[in-house]
Fold each of these.
Amino acid sequence: MLEPLKEFFRGSRGGQSGGGSPSPSGGPRKPVNGRGGAGEPVLSSRPSRGLEEFFTQIRDTSGLTILELGAATQKNVSFITDLGHRLYSEDFLRIMNDAFGADDTVDQSNPGRIEYFLKQTLDYPQGHFDGVLVWDVLEYLNPVLLNAVVERLHYIVRPKAYMLAFFHSDDKLEEVPSYTFRIGNLNSLEILQHGMRRPAQLYNNRSLEKLFGRFESVKFFLTREQLREVIIKA
Amino acid sequence: MSSMPPARFEAEPRGGAATIGKAVKVVGQIFSREDLYVDGEVEGTVEALEHKLTIGPNGIVRAAVKAREVVALGTIQGNVEATDKIEIRKDAKLTGDIRTARIIIEDGAYFKGSIDIVKPEPVKGAPKAQAPAPAAQPAPPAAAPAAASPPEIRR
């Protein structure tokens, strides 16, 4: 089991200091999961080294099994299936909101709820996937849930499979932009920003290496949006 | 009523699509030889192999679905095979595995499952006429196979 990265928890969200009160379990408070912020969604596009690296591994072989944890989008579905792969889609954050509530009232450390959540989202056989587009969903998980999810991901991907995950790199943020990621082509992304959202925790390279310690390797690419694109090899 | 035995629903020939209204619940197998619009509740299987199946905004289909074209505005729980295409509209919820030639997903739609894009099969046999031609299923009366093979609903 991976250790919770308590040292990287932040002020009011983490309950380690600041205005936030700790959860009943003594752990940090859960984040607000609902999408905040106002205004119209903003669409931008940019190159993505992480995506390029991900597709370098899967583009020359067809018939792979790819899991996407963001909400299904036309672009991503078309892109992945046009490459000849089978795509599995899990609307991870929506299921998380359903399982734990969209506010701070339910404990993401509850083993029963975690088990239920994993059954809803990641109930796949061992070594089932050749690649996972995780996007930024892991940022919104508290440590206990996060470790359970990472462990399950490790279980359901085959050895040498690749995962692409995003994490904000500015560890002073109270809220981070909430994104939908659409694949533009092999090395570029369209990013739809809709509001702000409170992350459960923020990471530096070391904490990410620790988080994915069971995996073979972790590679980082920093973007101009202060996102770390992380390629994790199983 | 959910306690009803599996029934067979034959779409009546009429001008537009056959409709299952929002106050109707059908448990059993549905074979349709014309376009079908489901705005009610269906449990079992739905087949409209050469036609379009639309799940209306109030529709809840807990069934394995096969059709030429599927348009989801409501809820589908079950595997979907759409030989031509499937459209999952903005407020639709689809939980199940999809096999289709083409897929359209609107932003905001909920989808959980897998997507297999399959090339359309070459035209099988002679082209079938829309109206009096025999359907893919011989459609015997009553529910002979229904009791023997309960509806397959996965996930």
Note: The longest helix of chain A spans residues 143-156.
Amino acid sequence: MSNPLDWFGRREALLAVACLAAVLLFSFLSPYFFNAENLSAVLSNSVELLLVGLGMTLLLGVGGIDVSVGVAMGLAAIAVGRLLQAGVTPAVAGLAGPVAGLLIGVGTGSVVVFGRIPAIVATLGLYGVYRAGIYLCLGGDWLSGLPIGLTELVGTGIAGVPLAFPIVALTYLALYVALRRTPFGPHLLAIGDSEAKARLSGVSVNRTQLLAFIISGGLTGLAASFYVATYRNVEMTIGGTLALEAIAAVVLGGTSVIGGRVSLIGTVLGVLLLRLLQNGLLLSGVPSLWQTVVTGLLLLFVLGIEAVQGRLSLTMLMRSKSGRLASRVAQ
Amino acid sequence: MTELKSYTLAILASLWVVVVAGLAILQPSALDVSTVTTILQFSTILGLVSLGQGVVILCGGAGIDLSVGGIASLTSVVAMQAAEAGMPLPLLPVICIVVGAGLGTFNGLLVTRLGLLPLIATLGTFYVYSGAAVATTGGAVLSGVPSYFIVWGRGVVSGLPLPFLTLTLPLFLLTAILLRFTAWGRWIYALGFNERSARLVGIPVDRVRLIAYGASGAFAGSAALVGLAWLGSARPNIGQNLELTSLTAALLGGIGIMGGRGGVIGILAAVLLLVTLQTGLLQLNVNSIWQVGIIGALLIIVLLADNLRFIRRST
């Protein structure tokens, strides 16, 4: 944890082991789990959560949060769906998702940054506004039976590899470079660590925060395109639990909720672990109603372990330095 | 502080007048004693939960309780399951409050003992509580609430619903008095305002915060009791969306999100405003989705107005 950008720390190792353990366990529990078809289904089910989660990683890293990403994805999905219905070429309709997402990101970011409202409260309000926006756009109906063009485009992909794979890889790479090789990364972490200190050091706080919201919006819009391609419909309740799931996955991955530490690979592993557990439990005969309980327990368990470890190491630190500490307190 | 409070109350009151006037113009037949009864009936559960939410936020330390809805759902389910398992029915209120307080205290332990961030700790318990409520019942409604509770839950005295009169209103007044006139109340403001100095002057910060989370759970548990008595059955989704709505009510009511600022009477005013708005829209046959949008927009606008006021003053 010496370098907050360390790309593979203890938490990431723990998560990787947990993913492997889950695969082993479920292979024993269910004959349907360990085969190429099911595992690739797990991966393709992870795409939207992964994209949204990567955006959320930046937001939590900068000390923000966005609980409206699920409904934002819904709005972008409606844009994609309406264009498909209008007979636009699938590639253009697919691009409309990220564009709509970027615009929503600008809106959300502006309310938080320029309105100077705490991110959790502002995005909670926007959740309601966007939800009503979805209703306004859909008029209480579903978009269903959308043209299959986008689905074919995404499924065929490049040389037999589904389009999701290169897109997620490129996204990851771009974010990695942005965090490691440009001032954006250090600025993000500095703001997440202490907004006041970052401001005093000349970091453009507003611009960095707004940028994080815009990137997250774009990724959410990208997720919307994949959503439409996969399900070919947009329902009124779209994205209901997506934000909470994304936050859970990112926090599992070791990104600090109060900012100052981000882990992209941790987010990837966190998303993978969540989806593996959901799939494996279902195949092992656990009713899907228990999924949320398991998600919650997992979150509390991982963070609890870390907290207990942190407390232990803190106690040891206190013990070894107790003399010095005591004298400092006495002064 | 008092100026701030009266400012919030004035805004809420004028918004309320606008809503009622709008309703009077668009649907004059809706202005009637039975509407008042309906509004207060719906305010009972939201009021109780928002009260707990408000106290938790007041305590500062990024305090927030996302699990209130989950506590309400799980408590009502557990209470009815205990009744089916042979627990004497008159004990229903006791078990509701005890289970609620227990679940809330668990949140408090996660926050104070493990040092988890409240947002994340209660996000985790939100999943666990609300998931367990649905999973243990399979989503089915549990019936069998004894009739004497339903008499209380649906009772109306001169237009005022009994649960509101006997539970919500007294608890709000009690909390207001506790916050204003007792050491514990002043401690809550102190540690919300500046935790470091609160610690330095010897306030038992962790214990106060633990009790706040426990109280929030107990309030949610009593909301579950009202739900049982009013609906006559335990619904595993009784607490759905309560976390968002209660947060909105608390913040609209003037509780500062950073803690240490605001009062509970504002919360009650905000709850009444929100429920009046909802009831009005219902009377006008407006889809309930619009309520969510309007409440969200209202939350942002009120906070923006609040910020502008501070900016103007500081320049």
Note: Strands of chain B lie at 142-143, 156-157, 160-161, 233-234.
